[in-house]
Amino acid sequence: MAKLTINDLKKIKEKVHAEMALRDGDRRVKITVHMGTCGIASGAREVLDTLLQEIEAAKVNDIIVTTSGCMGLCSREPLVTVEILNQDPIKYEYMNPNKMRQVFKKHILEGEIQTPFVLARGAEIIK
Amino acid sequence: MLELAQHILDIAENSIRAGAKLIAISINENSKDDLLTIEISDDGCGMKEKEINKALDPFYTTKTVRRVGLGLPLLTNASQTSGGKLQLSSEPGKGTKVTATFQLSHIDRQPLGNINSSLISLVATNSDVDFFYNHRHNDRQFKFDTRSIRKEIGDVPMQHPEIIKYIRGVIEEGLRKIKTEA
Description:
heterodimer, A: alpha+beta, Glutaredoxin, five-stranded mixed β-sheet, 4 helices, 39% helix, globular, B: alpha+beta, Heat Shock Protein 90, 6 strands
């Protein structure tokens, strides 16, 4: 592979600018991967990595990915919360790279909730 | 946890929760002294003396959703089983520094693992935090700083897929060049 330089970065910047002009950069989906010690130990990093690569491959940029800490359900990690604009957040449990790919393609891109993996609907209430 | 890269991600998540704006991660593989050093320092809110002493206790946590806090204890254990130790220093308002050492050739030392994945996980999900990564392998060195990337890309968001792809490539190339062995 050729060496990556600052010039490559400049090219990316120009390209992204051109694309941004065509779109209104609205965020349609927010995905939270729970990254506490429990999540990381059970494979949340691999789930997140898969998600980022899927986003890259699908060339979509209306998705924001963030992480959060443990929410007290360590035994059901890795947990992923998918929030589509104007819809209830969906929490998926026991995630792995393959399930993440399925959720990304079916739920995030096509809007079809993958019920077999769902832990709960709605946001958690933090005490 | 199976790799040191996962510990690094975990400790850096602590820093993020402490409100850090800059997190410096440094790894030093020193074959001559048979020593691996991992240092993570941040400019977060820091801890008081009392909290520092409690932080290594697995039954101490600042969270209320569960009664254990295993991040630092797990790293302490990982370093101690491979003939190293963990040092924690912190000052309220200034930040925290975690230093873990390992005997490089120790049979029980966890592998460094997928550093690239851990760094990407941090950079891609924390657009308002800067990361400085410094990896030494004997006389070779790889440095990576999100501040210089930020300066270059201007108003393009850091977590844009194209930028993440670029960063992934840069880290992969850098780690290959210094022939990391740990």
